[in-house]
Amino acid sequence: MKKAVYPGSFDPVTYGHLDVITRAARIFDELTVSVLNNTQKKPLFSVEERVKILEEATKDIPNVKVDSFSGLLIDYAREHDLHVSVRGLRAITDFEYELQIAQTNRKLSGGSLDTVFLTTSLEYAYLSSSSVKEIASFQGDISQCVPPFVAELIYQKYGHKM
Ligand code: PNS
User: Which of 17, 18, 36 to mutate to test the pocket of ligand 1 (most atoms within 8 A of CB)?
Assistant: First the structure.
C-alpha cells in the first residue's frame, strides 16, 4: 500500500492545499494530512481547530486521514511507517525553502523519508494562508481562497460578520 504524509501548518487550509490533497490522494492509497503543532508560531487557529477544519474539508475523500504532530517530521514519519512526504510548489520562490527541507529530511532520516512535490494548479499559485488572513483581517473577499465554512470561521476570529 502506497502511503504518504502531507505535513504543514494549514492555518487555515486554502483551496491551494485542497488542490494538492485531492491530487495526492489520487496518487497514493492513503494520504495523512498532518498539522504541525509549532510552539514558536502564534497561529490563528489552534491545532485542534485546524484538524477539525481539515477533516470537514476532506470528508468526501475516503483515503485522506487528518492528524497532527509535534517535533521533527522524520520522527513522526518513522513512528507511522510513512516514507513519502508530499509538498506543494507554487512558484520558484518556494523552491529553495522546500529543497532545503526535503534534503534535510532525507539526510536526517537516513534516506527513509523522501519528498514528492506537486506543482500547485496555476489558478491557486498566488494563494497563501498568510495572505488569506491578512485580506480577511481587513474584511476583504476571501471567497476564492477558502471554502465558505472556512471563510466564516476566519471572519469570526477577526470579529467580522460574513
Ligand atoms: O505549511 P508550512 O508551515 O510551510 O509547513 C512547514 C513544515 C511543517 C513542512 C515544516 O516546517 C516541518 O516539517 N516542520 C517540522 C520540524 C522539522 O521536521 N524540521 C526539519 C526540516 S527543516
Answer: 36
